[in-house]
Amino acid sequence: MELRIQDVYRCGRLTLRPDSRFGLILPVGRKKDSIKKAIEKHFSPGTLDKRCESCATTVEHSSKALIESAPEILILQLIIYYSDGSKKRTDIHFDQWLDLRRFQRDQSENLQYKLSSVISHAGASVKSGHYISHVSGPQGFFVISDQDIRKSTLSAFTAPKQRHPGYRSTFDPYLLTYTRTES
Predict the structure, then answer these.
(1) Could you give the number of structural domains in the chain?
(2) How confident is the model at residue 133 (pLDDT cuts 50, 70, 90)?
(3) CATH number of the domain enclosing 145
(4) What is the DSSP string of 44-82?
């Protein structure tokens, strides 16, 4: 995904600069957070003081990330760990469909994605625990662990707390993979 930052200076100057981040890394925080809110926050305009090359003064300007070109496969990494490695306790809500059209520079182009996999973690920290994956394919929904694959459902696939029949604990979504659709 190629992101650009649009800077608008008080004097009227407009610049576009590349955003060095790879993909979308989304912090989640509150007890009940959503992917939609995290994406809106990621793309919402901010303000900061910066030197304007046109008027040669340091002025407040607005800055906003825009999608320049979008990938066929979109990976969203959710920041579910604190800096010390312990895990946040949150319910992250997400949908099967994701429309990013309003965050791209050319809003006439379709930018709709369909959820294709969810990688989730159970455990108290980044140093321990277990990962599972929920996937969607032509034969339906499946949950995959180390040594087994089981049939699943759409509601389990998009649940804020993921489950696997072989484990008592719940799993927190960590990586979401979306596939771009034609319509």
Answers:
(1) 1
(2) very high
(3) 3.90.70.10
(4) S-EEEEEE-TTT-SEEEEEEEEEEEE--SEEEEEEE-B-
